[in-house]
């Protein structure tokens, strides 16, 4: 522990600076800054919060490393994938191939095409531009749904798409994918086996801002719903209902990203026995200039 950490801990516990360093009096005529005392309970809570922040930072660093590794792997396997695809094409053109053999080759080609598509989506998901660009939210949502497709299939969850507009927004694609991925992941967790999720993209207006044109992206599930006491804390940093599996920063970070893009999020939910589920609605302006978006972007 360095001297700075020792001074900080002494200050948190005793409400005063480390006396090993002389405190210089303020010049005559100037007010002397005096630190307000901190109770042991407040000091203990502060240390707990600091430890949680430290653990989350380490976890996020691991996730960033894993993301970069996944991107590198996806890039490296593209060449052998292309080679295998070409070989399968050559095999399919062989004259002596039996009908059953052609069926096997066609199946292998379809599976290779799926692997190639997943690889490209993984690259696109982690690739970020240095400047905000015009993008279609429908396309970004499709990237996210493709990555979560296997999970939905395993639970037998039907995802209904309702894309009612092809309008574009000015955004950082990677950040918006991150928001969409968080909502889809939460919906899949909340939805029981055999349930359903509806994803809708439609034109809208932000009436709180002189009727500015916007896109409304809705993710609705028919899961168990969110109780009122929990809804009040949704989006609060470190708050999670997932126990050790949750970090409590997913929706908080999503809201921060939306705010930087001039958007916002709304939540409605019901735990009624006959009508239950949760709806997250995102509003993103379509007329925001790139310079405004970029000026709002900070390192999260």
Describe the structure.
With 300 residues, the chain is of the alpha+beta class. The chain folds into two domains: 77-124; 131-296, 2-Layer Sandwich (Heat Shock Protein 90). 50% of the residues lie in helices and 17% in strands. It is built from ten helices and seven strands. It has a five-stranded mixed β-sheet with strand order 2-4-5-7-6. A two-stranded antiparallel ribbon has the order 1-3. A hairpin with a 4-residue loop joins strand 6 (264-271) and strand 7 (276-285). It is globular and about 85 Å long. The chain starts with a helix and ends with a helix.
Summary keywords:
300 residues, 17% strand, two-stranded antiparallel ribbon, disordered C terminus, 10 helices, alpha+beta, 7 strands, Heat Shock Protein 90
Percentage of helical residues? 40-55%
Q: How would you sum up the major sheet?
A: 5 strands, mixed
Q: Overall mean pLDDT score?
A: 76
The total of helices stands at: 10
Provide the domain count.
2
What CATH first level of the largest domain would be assigned?
A: Alpha Beta
Radius of gyration: 26 Å
Structural class: alpha+beta
CATH third-tier fold name of the largest domain: Heat Shock Protein 90
Distance between the termini: 27 Å
Order of helices and strands: HHHHEHHEEHEEHHEEH
Low-confidence stretches: 8-23, 296-300
Count every beta strand, where a strand is a DSSP E run of 2 or more residues: 7
CATH superfamily of the largest domain: Histidine kinase-like ATPase, C-terminal domain
Question: What is the molecular shape?
Answer: globular
């Amino acid at each position: 522990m360095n001297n700075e950490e020792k001074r900080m801990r002494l200050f948190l516990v005793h409400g005063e600076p480390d006396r090993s360093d002389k405190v210089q009096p303020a010049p005559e005529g100037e007010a002397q800054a005096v630190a307000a005392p901190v109770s042991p309970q407040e000091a203990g809570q502060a240390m707990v919060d600091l430890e949680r922040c430290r653990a989350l930072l380490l976890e996020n660093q691991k996730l960033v490393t894993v993301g970069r590794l996944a991107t590198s792997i996806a890039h490296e396997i593209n060449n052998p994938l292309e080679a295998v695809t070409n070989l399968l094409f050559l095999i399919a053109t062989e004259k002596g191939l039996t009908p059953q053999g052609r069926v096997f080759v066609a199946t292998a080609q379809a599976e290779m095409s799926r692997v190639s598509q997943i690889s490209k989506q993984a690259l696109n998901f982690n690739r970020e531009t240095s400047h905000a660009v015009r993008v279609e939210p429908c396309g970004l949502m499709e990237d996210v749904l493709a990555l979560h497709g296997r999970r939905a299939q395993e639970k037998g969850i039907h995802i209904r798409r309702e894309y009612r507009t092809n309008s574009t927004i000015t955004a950082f694609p990677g950040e918006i994918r991150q928001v969409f991925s968080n909502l889809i992941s939460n919906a899949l967790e909340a939805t029981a086996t055999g349930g359903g999720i509806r994803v809708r993209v439609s034109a809208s207006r932000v009436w709180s801002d002189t009727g500015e044109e916007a896109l409304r992206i809705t993710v609705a599930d028919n899961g168990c719903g969110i109780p009122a006491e929990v809804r009040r804390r949704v989006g609060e940093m470190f708050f999670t209902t997932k126990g050790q599996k949750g970090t409590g920063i997913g929706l908080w970070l999503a809201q921060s990203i939306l705010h930087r893009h001039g958007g916002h999020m709304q939540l409605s939910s019901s735990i009624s026995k006959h009508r239950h589920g949760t709806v997250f609605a995102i509003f993103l302006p379509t007329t925001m200039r790139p310079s405004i978006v970029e000026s709002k972007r900070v390192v999260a």
